[in-house]
């Protein structure tokens, strides 16, 4: 059964509301539990996620990429094994790059016309589906970044999803709703603290924003913010926090 934008908006209304409230009050909010405990995610979640990860090894990653010719597999786990996951390869030719960028440009027109609410709903659905597969992602992060599993689960899973949600919330809220300076509550695993955050408008540039190794990240922060804002909606923002 097809899912409508109204369905997505309704499904994620509470999450968006709580995220918007958090960025307004600078209170603590996390939508994605950081503990990979079976008491949080269920008794079989870890084993099921590892099995899904292993099913990718030595197989084609199912992407239909315009301009691609053939596939490449270059990844080796820092723990030793060749991963053998084969990705579409777009060569450095005018024909290939024109096909890739032309397809992206054509898609952008409809995405821009959809409006902020629709774009936010779609991005929130992306995050929900990634969270459903967070153990699978954690295994992939572990074997591409070299991090221990729990760190991979947190930094490349739950924390990256929370940062992405924050970016969507900042992009979604109306222009002019920003606070220049405000106290912010920080919290993790029951520990609380406060910081002062100074917000500034900064020009947009072509960036992929992340605080750690790129291979471990959900498409977070600037990328999802740009998907919601689109060109001309509003400027990117930078928060500078001092403890």
Describe the 3D structure.
The protein is an alpha+beta fold and 243 residues long. It folds into 2 domains: 5-56 and 116-242, no CATH class; 61-114, no CATH class. 49% of the residues lie in helices and 13% in strands. The protein is built from 9 helices and 5 strands. It has helices at 5-11, 13-25, 38-41, 45-56, 94-114, 116-132, 134-145, 149-172, 222-229; strands spanning 71-72, 87-88, 181-188, 191-202, 236-242. The chain has a 3-stranded antiparallel β-sheet with strand order 3-4-5, covered by helices on one side. Mean pLDDT is 81; it is low at 200-216 and 231-243.
User: What is the total number of structural domains?
Assistant: 2
Helix and strand sequence? HHHHEEHHHHEEHE
Rg result = 19 Å
Distance between the termini: 49 Å
Strand order of the largest sheet: 3-4-5
Class by alpha and beta content? alpha+beta
Helical content, roughly?
40-55%
Share of residues in strands: 5-15%
Number of DSSP E strands: 5
Query: Shape, please?
Result: globular
Provide the residue-averaged pLDDT. 81
Show unreliable segments: 200-216, 231-243
Largest sheet: 3 strands, antiparallel
Number of helix segments? 9
């Amino acid at each position: 059964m097809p899912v409508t934008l109204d369905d997505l908006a309704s499904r994620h209304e509470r999450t968006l509301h709580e995220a918007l409230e958090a960025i307004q009050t600078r209170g603590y909010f996390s939508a994605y539990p950081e503990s990979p405990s079976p008491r949080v995610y269920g008794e079989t979640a870890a084993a099921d996620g590892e099995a899904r990860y292993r099913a990718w090894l030595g197989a084609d990653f199912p992407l239909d990429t315009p301009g691609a010719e053939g596939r490449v597999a270059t990844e080796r786990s820092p723990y030793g094994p060749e991963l053998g996951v084969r990705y579409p390869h777009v060569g450095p030719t005018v024909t290939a790059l024109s096909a890739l960028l032309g397809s992206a440009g054509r898609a952008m027109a409809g995405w821009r016309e959809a409006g902020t609410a629709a774009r936010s709903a779609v991005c929130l659905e992306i995050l929900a589906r990634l969270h459903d597969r967070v153990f699978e992602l954690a295994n992939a992060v572990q074997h591409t970044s070299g991090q221990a599993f729990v760190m991979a689960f947190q930094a490349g899973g739950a924390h990256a999803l929370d940062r992405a949600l924050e970016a969507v919330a900042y992009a979604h809220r109306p222009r002019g709703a920003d606070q220049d300076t405000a106290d912010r509550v920080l919290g993790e695993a029951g520990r609380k603290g406060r910081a002062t955050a100074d917000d500034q408008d900064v020009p947009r540039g072509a960036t992929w924003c992340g605080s750690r190794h790129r291979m471990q990240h959900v498409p977070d922060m600037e990328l999802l913010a740009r998907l919601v804002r689109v060109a001309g909606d509003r400027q990117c923002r930078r928060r500078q926090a001092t403890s």
